[in-house]
Write a structure and sequence with these properties.
It contains 2 helices and 5 strands. It has helices spanning about 10, 35-45; strands at about 15-20, 25-30, 50-60, 65-75, 80-85. The longest helix has 12 residues, at about 35-45.
């Protein structure tokens, strides 16, 4: 036990993207921030009113994520779409 190394995944920094559209949404995990941003934007296009974000994360205990910095936040309402660098996740849609 004392000499065991953490798994490769325990040392990786993941880009976790999520889109919240009330009772619906989407999300995913990748090792690439640009890919996460692209997938989040693609998912935002599926909902008329929603919010999305990309956060960095590492595996904690091998089964759950420990979240760090929010890289980008986006909001969509109808045809209006706003992307903000950093954390601008609003409490409600």
């Amino acid at each position: 036990m004392g000499g065991e190394k953490p798994s490769t995944f325990a040392r990786e920094v993941f880009a976790v993207w999520e889109v919240d559209a009330g009772d619906r949404g989407a999300g995913g995990v990748t090792l690439n921030r640009a890919t996460a941003h692209r997938e989040m934007v693609r998912a935002l296009e599926e909902f008329p009113r929603c919010r999305g974000r990309v956060r960095l994360a590492i595996l904690d205990s091998g089964v759950a994520y420990r979240y760090g910095e929010t890289v980008v936040t986006a909001h969509r309402h109808g045809r209006a779409f706003v992307t903000v660098a950093g954390d601008a996740w609003e409490a409600t849609l």
